[in-house]
Amino acid sequence: MPMTGDQAAGHADEAGVIRQSLRDLGLDSIVDVHTHFMPKRVMDKVWAYFDRAGPLIGRTWPIAYRLDEGARVQQLRDFGVVAFSSLVYPHKPDMAEWLNGWAAQFAAATPECIHTATFFPEPTAPDYVRRAIAEGARLFKAHIQVGDYSPTDPRLDGVWAALEQAQIPTVIHAGSGPTPGRFTGPAPVAEILRRHPALKLIVAHMGMPEYREFLELAERHPGVFLDTTMVFTDFTEANHPFPPALRPALGGLADKVLFGSDYPNIPYSYRHAIESITRLGLGDEWCRKVLYSNALSLFNEENP
After folding, report:
1. Residue-wise over 104-125: b if at least 16 C-beta within 10 A, else e?
2. Taking the model in full, what pTM does it have?
3. Residues 85, 35: contact at Cβ < 8 Å?
4. Where is the Amidohydrolase-related domain (predicted)?
């Protein structure tokens, strides 16, 4: 749906505050590695899931940016986001390749979008993953919770091998938050890293709520990064607070933490997502790396 007049005014105000916050840090741009753009019918189903998330996770989850696709893209541009993802993910077989085709078209039509693809444990996965890589995919998404599969599934051996060889990162939702799945947790991720030590993984939501275990994986493995998606916000701190004792470890991982928002599927403002980073007290340089330069380095991009 398009913006109403009041929404447009509120958006302009929010964009102005975000831009000022960036200027205060010495930045004029953000890279957001965790945003969702999907075919409309899929996004509608995702939003319907969050609309009924109260009984599923014990709290309400209002979608803050329930707008049509073009308005959502423009909103990110206005916020100063110069690169973002279109994280798609399947929940059943014979869906991933179709999603990859849509995501390739979206990236071709949206210059700021990092060409994103996905996969599911099925016999055809290695072939369509290699094809997506050949067609320019630069980021993959694996959602262990929604897909209800183990990342150690033998049908994914060829997928991980192809991604390791190509050195293309995968955003992997493997933590047990907001609700645990049959295969969530750090152990399966540790196993695929044992098998593929050069694999590049971006742990979504910093592994919430298994923060410590996933931070330790990032410390041990050169190719493991963490995204900040929803972590440190008031919404998440209420149920899955980040342990204060682990905050010094974040300083030590200054080059391996990436900003993610989960836009548009967040129950608070984008402004708050950024403020949750800047208020940690880890310094302006740490914030600049998280909000911008770490992702540029990971994707080998020049400053836009």
Report:
1. bebbeebebbbbbbbbbbbeeb
2. 0.96
3. yes
4. 31-299
